[in-house]
Description:
By secondary structure, this protein is mainly α. It is 91% helix and 0% strand. It is rod-shaped, with a radius of gyration of 47 Å.
Amino acid sequence: SADKHADEIDRLKAAHAKHADDFSKHAKDVANALAHHATLRERMAYLEKLMGDSADKHAAALQALQAAHDKHAEDVAGLSKAHSAHATLPERIAYLEKKLGDSADKHAKELQA
């Protein structure tokens, strides 16, 4: 009976030693894996920086687009103002017809005289 108990104790010691070795190996594997991963705080800081950079880029692009739009609006207003100083096509034709008509009438009178 004492031999049985001694054998059982030896088996329990061996199982415990194996378990302790396995646990030690597992703990080392976990530590190595964690060493290669960023902490939650580091990951959050990275994401916040990434989102902040992206938001800054989008804000800059939006501001550039707004400035381009404003310049375009000024250019269009300038063109509209410049066009308003020009006579319309019907006005220009009427002017030419009047000048040519006056000139033709004047020449006809000169030829008759």
